[in-house]
């Protein structure tokens, strides 16, 4: 970028009404040192703005930021939406959809249903036990 373009860009960015002399003409009659001292005195008298802050920045409350980013529980609204629907899919169709979406890995497979074992009852009745007792022990 040429120096002339750079100078023009800086002139556009300057605040209106605050025209400064070009650097070559800024030196006084006393030489470059006197001009530097005058510049330092002028800079010391003017109030400086804090360069650490951004122009137009608004200080935000930490509590407001926390509430803004806090997770919201949508469970109640979602349940009402789901329960509001009148259409209920057929159980066989839902099973087919679940089977299609299931992976091939063993961790993706549903646990196999185990049939409940019925308690085994005795084959003998109470009368058979009494009869056996009479025959074995010889009691009438």
TrEMBL record:
Keyword presence, Nucleus: yes
- What Pfam family is a match, any one? AROS
Q: What subcellular compartments does it reside in?
A: Nucleus, Nucleolus
Q: Which GO terms describe its cellular component?
A: nucleolus
Annotated GO MF terms: enzyme binding
Query: Region (Disordered): which ranges?
Result: 13-56, 98-121
**InterPro entries given in the database record:** AROS (IPR023262)
Query: Origin, by domain of life?
Result: Eukaryota
Keywords for this entry?
Nucleus
Task: Report whether Nuclease shows up as a keyword of the record.
Answer: no
Q: Which family does it belong to?
A: Belongs to the AROS family.
Write the protein's name: Active regulator of SIRT1
Which organism's genome codes for this protein?
Answer: Eudyptes chrysocome
């Amino acid at each position: 970028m040429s120096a002339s373009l750079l100078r023009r860009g800086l002139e556009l960015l300057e605040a209106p009404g605050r025209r400064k002399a070009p650097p070559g003409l800024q030196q006084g009659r006393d030489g470059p040192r006197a001009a530097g001292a005058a510049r330092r005195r002028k800079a010391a008298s003017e109030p400086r703005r804090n360069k650490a802050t951004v122009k137009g920045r608004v200080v935000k409350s930490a509590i407001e930021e926390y509430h803004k980013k806090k997770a919201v529980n949508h469970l109640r609204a979602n349940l009402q939406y789901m329960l509001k629907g009148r259409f209920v899919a057929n159980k066989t169709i839902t099973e087919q959809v679940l089977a299609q979406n299931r992976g091939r890995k063993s961790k993706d497979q549903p646990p196999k249903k185990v049939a409940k074992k019925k308690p085994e009852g005795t084959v003998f009745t109470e009368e058979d036990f009494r009869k056996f007792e009479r025959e074995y022990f010889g009691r009438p």
